Amino acid sequence: MAVFLMFGTARAQVYGTAGHTVTVQVSVITSVRVTVGTVNLNISSANVVAGQNLMSVTDQSTSLLWGTNSSLRKVSVSTSLAAPKFTLQLLALNPTAGNAAAQVTLSTTAQDFLLNIGRSSGSCTLQYTGSALASQGTGNDVHVITFTVATQ
Amino acid sequence: MNLAMMRSFAIIVLLCAAGGWTQLRAQISVQGGNPLLSVTTGTAGAQPVAVTNTSTSLRFRRQTVITKITVSTSCPGQRFSLAVLATNLTYGVAAPQVTLLNGMPATDFILNLPTNGTLNKTCTLLYTASATFAQGNSTELGNDVHAVTYTLVAQ
Fold this sequence. Notes:
The complex is a heterodimer of chains A (152) and B (155).
Chain A: E1 14-26, E2 30-34, E3 54-68, E4 73-79, E5 87-93, E6 99-100, E7 104-105, E8 111-115, E9 120-133, E10 145-151
Antiparallel strand pairs in A: 2-3, 3-9, 4-8, 4-10, 5-7, 5-9, 6-8
Chain B: H1 3-24, E1 28-31, E2 36-39, E3 51-61, E4 67-74, E5 81-87, E6 93-94, E7 98-99, E8 107-113, E9 120-130, H2 138-141, E10 144-154
Antiparallel strand pairs in B: 1-3, 3-9, 4-8, 4-10, 5-7, 5-9, 6-8
């Protein structure tokens, strides 16, 4: 007696297919902003140490946020004030992506602030340090700080 | 015109008619061409803003059994995200939004298409494209080109 066994998988009947092409394009996107627009550093008598000429104050109240989908990118920083009377320095604290550069003494020439942030979205705390010598007297320096995402 | 030429002409006419009839009888078709979704903006500290497209639609015919439509895609080297959802559906039930991934198996897109109602039914294809900053951009990496296939099958 011959026994025939048939194996197969059940397939649902297909009535038709249709298709098209869908293209996804992602532009070069770069965005950078600070959380607060104004920072005030006030060197007062509270910052004076008797016998020391140098007085300084720091501020960590603001943060920098960025997003870039390009590779090999960094953030540079510069100030609008060409001849400041006092010294203003900036350091990136706790960046969530990339590496902080060494503390920058701000000038009108763009300087590295954050390195290796390519293709990331992140933030860091901005630590400003204002310092003055007692011998420099009193006054105000008003800086407009510019952060720029640039090719590394 | 000799007999052979007349015969050839007749065959050509019949083939054209058959092709047209087949087209008319297509059980499922995509209307509206090939959409392009461009992600162009993003937010510092967040991610690029997703974009949607509803310029295309799906047209399909009632069958003698309950049917469903599945979707799949081929996109070698896919880098960005693409999802599709059936909207403006008058018959059947739209499945939840389907994330389209290269080489994915056919995934339910519309279910429970009934045997009654109008002969031809349609739905709008709602595509959503998104990307993260970490996924890069098309200038450096190229576009994602999906060959998306919809299949009408017995449920």
